[in-house]
Records
---
Amino acid sequence: MDYLAEGVVKALYLLLHGNAETYSAMGATVSASTLSILASLILGAPLGFLLGHYDFPGRRAVRSFTDTMLCVPTVVIGLLVYAFLTRHGPLGSLGLLFTIPGIALGQTVLGLPIVVAMTATAVEGLDERLSHTLMTLGANRKQIFLTTLSEARFAIALAAVAAYGRIVSEIGISMMIGGNIKWHTRTITTAIALETGKGEFAMGIALGLVLLVVAFGVNLLTSMLRRRAGK
Amino acid sequence: MKQVIAGLTLALMLLMTTAALAGDTVMMATTTSTDNTGLLDYLAPIFQADTGVELKWTAVGTGKALAMGENCDVDVLMVHAPDSEIKFVDAGFGEDRRLVMYNDFVIVGPEADPAKVKGMTAANALKAIAAAKAGFASRGDNSGTNKKELSLWAGAGIATPIKVEWYVETGQGMIATLNVAGEKGIYSMTDRGTWIKFESTHPDSMPLVIISEGDEALFNQYSVMAVAPAHCPAVNNAMALKYMDWIVTPAAQKAIADFKLLGKPLFIPNAK
């Protein structure tokens, strides 16, 4: 029980004293999660729009597929991506194993279905008359696409927050693809696993709080951006 | 949108170039005991100061470390499962295996010692624990320690206890397994380095004590070997050799001997 209180004190110490190892892990977490959330949004929002806006044969099957992908355990995604990135694998020559972009690739596989599924649901939920009205006003496809996404922007922002939450807190992919390499691919979550493995429970709690501080910072930033965009 | 894509590409390029600009590095897969005890955190800066090469390592069980070597993901291995290592070399995946250091395994258990095994040899202790069904926490993860433990059961003439109530397979690292044994008040087996580290994290009350030690069967040898370039042309064999040549030098061996916790040495160098 003692280690809970000790953990809170340690968290403050790590943050205020500029502990190099902690800041390196924070840097790894922030760069991997930023890359993967951007990739998830850039790929996922248009795909979600297509899935929610157009009716095509097999659409229900695709929707069930994306909904199922929401439940794939992160360790399995890690194993799957490892099979491609290992030097013996088809993408081995890219040298992405044990790198931040490698982790980001795996995390994109994690975040993408969340963005696709939630964007599709949001687009489906919009008033059907929207696209008809846009068409009668002479909007072309691109204009319909952008206006629809803009109408669904709050739902997409929520999708981004949900996907970010899963990405930043996952450990299976970071451990399997990143390898928990000190000063390079040690993220906050893999550092927590290591400290727990060492029996340093207070340090694990402290790093957990550090992760919450990072997440709070990101949420603050996005809500500021949203407010500026709203004006 | 365009700006976001441009930003993303820029970030990726930056990450790639920083990776490319970094100096010589050697990538090692190793076991959890060398990492959890803090030995590598201590050795890596010395290695870099001596040779200018950065040591990067991923700490996994010996089973996974060997698999990473076979898949050509790492340049060098530092593990502690001699039988598996020799098979690995014979299969052509590794070469140039060298002894580095050793410590020993100890059988630990609750102070009360319900199976009355204190002071017995490892084989007799295990026999008594099994006969009394006194409870044993195993790593169960194909790590070097787990392999050693399984060989001890076999050596004691006992079939590997699977699916029996008193044998707990944690599937986790050594300290986590010791925590399970401590919480449940049952026996376990650990390498001495991790045991001293465990002692250092329980300054007030130790849930476990050493029950059996000093037996020749409990010897724990660590070795390094290079992933064979013939099997994996992409590995950085030159850097692997640099690391292997360094770790057997008298200076590096002395650094290992000087690595202590609670005043006790964790590993004893024995390179030839």
---
Amino acid sequence: MSQTSTEQSPRELWEAALAKGRVRDTDFNTLSGQEVKTMYGPDDVSPDYDENLGYPGQFPYTRGVHPSMYRGRLWTMRQFAGFGTAAQTNERFRFLLEHGQTGLSTAFDFPTLMGYDADDDISLGEVGQVGVSISSLKDMETLFEGIPLEKVSTSMTINGPAPVMLAFYIACAERQGVDPALISGTIQNDILKEYQAQHAWLVPPEPALRMITDVMGYCAKHTPRFNTISISGYHIREAGSTAAQELAFTLANGMEYVRRGVASGLDVDDFAPRLSFFFDSHLDFFEEVSKFRAARRIWARKMRDEFGAKNPKSWMLRFHTQTAGVSLTAQQPENNIVRTAIEALAAVLGGTQSLHTNSMDETLSLPTEKAVKIALRTQQIIAEEHEVTNVVDPLAGSYFVEAETDRLEADAEAYFKEIDERGGVVACIDAGFIQREIHRSAVTYQLAVERNQKKVVGVNIYDEGDQKPEIDIHRIGDHVENEQRARLKELRANRNEAAAQAELAKIRAACDTDENLLERFVAAAHADCTLGEICNVLRDAFGKYKEPKIL
Amino acid sequence: MSDRKIRVLIAKPGLDGHDRGAKTVATVLRDAGMEVVYSGLHQTPEMIAEAALQEDVDVVGLSILSGAHMSLFPRIREALTARDMGDVLLTGGGIIPEEDMTALEGDGFSKLFGPGTRTTDIVAWIETAVNERWAREEA
Amino acid sequence: MTTSHPKHSAKGYAERVVAGDRRALSRLISWAENGNRSFPEALEALYPSIGQAWRVGITGPPGAGKSTLVNELALALRSTQFGQREVGILAIDPSSPFTGGALLGDRIRMEELTGDKHVYIRSMASRKSHGGMARAGVDACDVMDAFGMERILIETVGVGQAEYDVMGACDTVVVVMCPGAGDGVQAMKAGILEVADVLVVNKSDQAGAERLADDLSEAVHTRAIRSDEWLSETGDAWSVPVVLASAGKGENIDKVLEAVAAHRAMLASRGANGLEDARRKKRVAQVRRVVDEVLDERVWSTAELGEHVEDALAKGATAYGVANEVVDQLLGAGALAKTSNKPSANK
């Protein structure tokens, strides 16, 4: 330090003032526990604008995948919905479309997500509880009754049995008289993160990955407008990961799917444009915006430079976002509207292609219609009132945001290296490495909240004691389970049994060959084979998955 | 030379795979000096009761976010009673509406914990309840 | 069931265990773990029923796939091919040295066994006392044996003296390794091979499995040639077989069980008392452990002796000097000198 204070630079003066100033008793880390400085400046950002940022719609897409972003077209407002019977959810879909929603997103119940029929013993008590129960093509037809499948884009959140559910959807379009080539939407179909975080699997990783490449191959030919995988960080984050882990594990999974697709004989540019992503938008505004920007840049670089993709569409990371379910509190639930709004804003400033905003009452039960409407209105207010859609990537050039973007990219690269050294994503799943990393972060965060290092309004600060929230509860009655059982009974009684059994036998045979399984599933759907029947064949052929011991 | 430890079974009934809470609680109870058996996912009531019996646990903690608590929890209690395990301390947590918690707490469940619960509160509650039972056994 | 003793008394529990009451089985294992004062009385009552089970220890480095192998072995033992045995499983995991707590997660890998009434799985934490854990492990096996388990599989992580002690009480010890993670050379250095009666190279489909199996075969062969003591101790040149298996895929599980059966047959072939001799040696070791533990407990149970030691040290006595004086007091003059001059009788 210089001897005379008169010669101090502005920076030194600031540092001196800072040292003397008051500091609140908190850790100032990001939500993910990453230390950040008091201030960021020109020294903290990457110097090469063209290489690291570029222009919107251009490699490496840090600033967005479209040249004009939201000036051209707003994001798709896509509220995840589903509960009870197919008929009930059909009604909710129509309600959302009437209120200006532009895409559909289907939530399934747990039996469906695990590949069991509604009348299976193991489904008892869970039918229609957290999503819609779909056990057959008939159910799928009811779900989309009166909704023209060539006009609406549909997202289906299902993974283990995703190829079977997609077959129901394709068959449903065919029954509506719609050419499958015209249907658009996304099937989540991201099995790797199921082993890592969400745990709705069907069979072990290798056969599951084979079915995914079957889907890629089939869809490249027959449903070119349908996204075959939504590579999802959302569930990884909700399971407790940090932002960097969400980014790293999601993109590592994405690269694994690309490797598998290429290994199955597909050209990378034939399927990579149909890969889409799905991220969480959590509480830490700047970390989240930076995460979305870093994701685009990493993916573009990997696809062009490592996988040799030539089609710019293969380089572009397009993504759906959902606000963080885990950030919602059961205490003072109305506060969740505010949290969700700011998380949604981060997704928009991060350049999302579609967005789901959570309803305020979701820690208490399924959302009520009123809560769902407020959540949708939140997006509409951001889009229409706040003038945040006028300028593309408006936070670019912020020293802090650019430094965070660089930091998250570096953190992700370090994980890619470690995953490689451990033998790749599947080996890491088998050994429980990724699961353990997520678990540790979850425990660290929980303890930070309990030690009041991280504040949660209504929980560890500004709490109102034992005051119970006054909020309506949305309940699913027992009649749903009974109705679904009756429908299945009727279906089985009225179908051509010999034809159904023949299709199941063909699936079993195809498991042992390299025949495209999705083709078989579509045929089985038309023969009224049920989800559970088809999945039982797969479980029998490929075995059940057992999680590793990670605790 | 008695070296008794509180033994807890943390179990995930039903088909929901959300185990963040269950695993976090299991880890915290371990760090509080308890011996924690973790069942893994997708357990039926029979599997949970059988594990509780074989492990001779003092506490069974259930985690559920699927909305199926009103059908699964009572079945687990029944399966425990059928195994002469009716005296085990039965608790749990998840997305369970207030009125359901009240109903279950009147039906063999000692206490249920909702979202936002501090794990330290769970630890303290288990320690107190188990120690009371042990004291009664001694007497 | 006719009960002549109160249901919750030591003798009552013992009777219930012999009669096949699983609740009682669980409770007595807890007594064994907790060092419950009534346990010796219960064990006494069980004694006539002990001795039918074949105890197979399964150990190896973390990540070798022990739990999965145990699961597969149990499933095979339940099949008609291997006689539909009654199977008991004891899965031992380490306790945290800092908090004394433990996470016992082995059941995750044994899910399909939970519904089988002929299989009993018990998780056990190693707790703080090494001798105590070895004792509790053996006691738990005794209770399962008396209950009527024909095969008992004891799983431990292959590290530490306590685990060796548990393995030492098994009839056959299977050491599991896998290529990569549980490096064979590492294991040999750690002395894990010394306790092996059967070696399993798990994850046989992975690169390096054959190589590891070759290395291990070479190592056990060399040991068999060099170690006269080992040869004389067992009487026969039991050549430790190395079995390539994949527990995850359920491959060659029968080969592992056949190797265990061959080891058993080898012991039985040493004349009429072959099996009994082998087991008697193990019982002697167990008695030593219990004696050590009880002595430790009794000698140091009051503060008096500790204070005496502190005083003596404060007055300038050496550690050996004080120890000598204490042992003399306990056992009579010159006791420590006598034992410390002799080479250790027990390795």
